[in-house]
Amino acid sequence: MSRCLESIIKHYKKNWGVSGTARVWDKGPREELPEEFVVLEFAPTSKRSMWTYATACMSQPDDESPIELHLFSPQSSQAHVELLTAIAHYHRHDAQLDLGNTVNFGRPWMPGSQCDHGLISLPYLDGPDLENLSLDDIAVRFLWLIPITKNELEYKKKNGLEALEEEFDKQKFNYLDPLRDSIV
């Protein structure tokens, strides 16, 4: 296990209090991702009633702005592993992702969901303890991938990230509900 992967796994465990299970999506161009890349699956606990999927080694130490992403879900699904693997591939080969960026999932987040895009946001549920990890001289940011609708994406493009996040707060949207209506 690489030092980078080991540090990221310890960081998640320190913040979420449990170890994740490494999951690998072995279809598609997996060989084009860093060898140590995995998606960690964290089962619900007494403190967190949701499933959590988190990348490990999506970014590499020589990246300009290394990030890792996590996604919350009301249920376990290998589709989340596939989704985060595809986003990691996009990040490595098409466009370096960062805070405020959006990604097109290419399909609904979960069956029946209007959420077919993802917003890369601050980890509001976990705060700066999760957000920041210093690996030697490298600062890695851990950001939240929030499933959003096409209408929410268009609202963000027109009004900005802060305006969309204010609407989320104002409407107290349920980020775990795959069948939620768009807030705009």
Question: Which secondary structure elements does this structure contain, and how are they paired or packed?
Answer:
Layout: H1 3-16, E1 21-23, E2 38-42, E3 51-56, E4 67-73, H2 78-93, E5 102-104, E6 115-121, H3 128-131, E7 132-135, E8 138-149, H4 150-159, H5 161-171
Parallel strand pairs: 4-8
Antiparallel strand pairs: 1-2, 2-3, 3-4, 5-6, 6-8, 7-8
Helix pairs in contact: 4-5
Helical proportion, percent range: 25-40%
Number of separate helices? 5
| Helix-strand category | alpha+beta
Cα gyration radius (Å): 16 Å
Please summarize the sheet with the most strands.
8 strands, mixed
Low-confidence stretches: none
Q: In angstroms, what separates the terminal alpha carbons? A: 45 Å
Strand element count: 8
How do the SSEs run, as a string of H and E?
A: HEEEEHEEHEEHH
**What amount of the residues lies in strands?**
25-35%
- Anisotropy-based shape: globular
Instruction: Kindly give the count of domains.
Output: 1
Mean pLDDT, as a whole number? 95
